[in-house]
């Protein structure tokens, strides 16, 4: 059987019915009655057990299942967040091989968890180069209080296990809502929290392509982090971090320190420092709060260490750029004699219109550019992409479009 893919969406408030509706719609788009793989995404409004039961009622027990909670879901024609949105993508193929991997005990153990997950991936034999998509639970409520599971040490563990030689790879830190309530993941018939999971597609000439779409441009010269503790930046250019940021933002901005959380974004240029601006060379880091006692910035990730060169980034959506980058990726796939199978869009939750102050949704540009190519996207906590150098890094305020393809 040639490869068939499809995606489905539901906003039904009954979790069982929502799972069944989304799964049935995905099979219908794929034009099949059964599938080898299903990827599930739903907001925290749904009961994870009932949602999975609804999916299983349609797909049956033989389908391998992977998925996670998400702030919102995106398919070809539907998009929504903070409600009862859910989505299912299916893959049916006689040539593509599906391998799923799970590593538990992520909480306060990110490096070891990532190392063990990558070792599992390495331990499997593949007939062709593997293509890796992985998720980790961003929300840690093992003590009852919220703490973020960090992507930087998780990726460091994975990279060390892989010897720095990454296959084609992308991933995400997931969460079910912007209130950071307990989040869940699916791994076949298991429902877990604080875990890392991975999907590897191989064989059949399958290949993973991706493009990074930022939405930020530099708004300052380079500055240097001169004191940091984990994800907390204490000093920049030997000055209290908030003091220097206040100067960069400007007194006429109307922003107070309380506004810095989820607004201030710092960028690290991983390309030519003095070359022309290239979105794909930047890893952006979002500030999530301010430590007023220490005049410090609290960041999503702990990788802005002493000596890191940063720039203040200005958020600006260029909708034409998002559409064009998507079309360029599709053109490159076609030029290589391949056809797109399934698109997967990992989109920062902060880019959603309601959170970014836009009256438009940038994900609509991805939908328009993809047309009828099956799409499952979701709003994430952390986006993970592969830079042109081959390194895999966590990102913020970013959209990462992944497309699997096969030879025509």
From TrEMBL:
Domain named FIST: residues: 33-240
InterPro entries found in the cross-reference section: FIST_C (IPR019494), FIST_domain_N (IPR013702)
A Pfam family annotated for this UniProt entry: FIST_C
Ranges for domain FIST C-domain: 241-387
Full protein name: Uncharacterized conserved protein, contains FIST_N domain
Organism: Hymenobacter mucosus
